[in-house]
UniProtKB/TrEMBL annotation:
Keyword Ribosomal protein carried by entry: no
Lineage: Bacteria, Pseudomonadati, Pseudomonadota, Gammaproteobacteria, Lysobacterales
Molecular function via GO: N-carbamoylputrescine amidase activity
Keyword Hydrolase: yes
Signal peptide positions (record): none
Natural source organism: Denitratimonas tolerans
CDD domains to which the protein is assigned, alphabetical: CPA
GO biological process, one term: putrescine biosynthetic process from arginine
Alphabetical keyword list: Hydrolase
PROSITE patterns noted in UniProt: CN_HYDROLASE
Top-rank taxon, per record: Bacteria
Cross-referenced InterPro entries: Aliph_Amidase/BUP, C-N_Hydrolase, C-N_Hydrolase_sf
All residue ranges annotated as the CN hydrolase domain in the record: 7-265
Protein name: Carbon-nitrogen hydrolase
Length: 295
């Protein structure tokens, strides 16, 4: 019998196919492939239903949003039930008129919507104008219980913040998951592109090491032009799975790919016994972390 603490996971790294139906149709194909390969957990990329529309500010883009539960959660839930897998997806949530979130949802293997996480850290940078669209999350850093474990789901910009990873770990997450849409300006110098991508991967390895947890990060790929006439974004892919010492379990490159690998969830216990970072935390001395800056 397979080890119940060994979890086969799949990450779906893809190009934008246009609109929601085309993207969801492709996702259905990839999830079927993942299930056939024995995966029990499938992670999708950030805002997978369409283009990364935050390269500009336009009220028309709000038409992409949908309620949760809604059409996409119904379709993804049916997909999860059909293949008996847990799916972590990423949607543009319409919560109320004028109130929208960048929201990850978790569909259980029986098709139920068992949890959601609203992106907490919202960027506002050239090409990533997310503050125009997304209200910061208000659900906190709470892992979502599923049949495959407690999932510490975070979203893209959250991946740079050690506080977010730590709070998920302190709440008992079994692994950290990052649906992501990150890339570089095509006009950047090659050395700058390499530094950006390496820093992104290094941040995930740091979260894995500091918390003794596996980390899954799923990014999109392909060039997406800017509606403003700028250079657009080349999404760099490099989706990966890490073990609790920051080791690579699997990684893919810059093309569409289905990453499938096994994650040994029991290793976190062993690693934390030899690197007891949670034991040695000086929680009596961390009050200043609640300040913006120590002037």
């Amino acid at each position: 019998m397979p080890d119940p603490r060994t979890l086969r996971v799949a990450l779906v790294q893809e190009r934008n196919q246009g609109e929601a139906d085309a993207n969801l149709t492709l996702i259905e194909t990839r999830v079927a492939e993942a299930a056939a390969a024995g995966a029990r957990l499938v992670l999708l990329q950030e805002l997978h239903n369409g283009p990364y529309f935050c390269q500009h500010e336009s009220v028309d883009e709000f038409d992409r949003a949908e309620p949760i539960p809604g059409p996409s959660t119904a379709r993804l839930g049916a997909l999860a039930r059909r293949h008996g897998v847990v799916i972590v997806a990423s949607l543009f949530e319409r919560r109320a008129p004028g109130l929208y979130h960048n929201t990850a949802v978790v569909l259980e293997s029986d098709g139920r919507l068992v949890g959601r996480y609203r992106k907490m850290h919202i960027p506002d940078d050239p090409g990533f104008y997310e503050k125009f669209y997304f209200t910061p999350g208000d659900l906190g850093f709470e892992p979502i219980d599923t049949s495959v474990g407690r999932l510490g789901v975070l979203v893209c910009w959250d991946q740079w913040y050690p506080e977010a990873a730590r709070l998920m770990a302190l709440a008992g997450a079994d692994l950290l998951l990052y649906p992501t849409a990150i890339g570089w300006d095509p006009d950047d110098a090659p050395a700058e592109k390499t530094r950006q991508r390496d820093a992104w991967i290094l941040s995930h390895r740091g979260h894995a090491v500091a918390n003794g947890l596996p980390v899954l990060s799923c990014n999109r790929v392909g060039h997406e032009p800017s509606p403003l006439g700028a250079a657009g974004i080349d999404f760099w892919g490099h989706s990966h799975a890490l073990g609790p010492q920051g080791e690579f379990l699997a990684q893919v490159g810059t093309e569409p790919a289905l990453l499938v690998c096994d994650v040994d969830l029991a290793r976190s216990e062993s690693v934390r016994r030899i690197w007891p970072f949670l034991r040695d935390r000086r929680i009596d001395a961390y009050a200043d972390l609640l300040r913006r800056y120590r002037d």
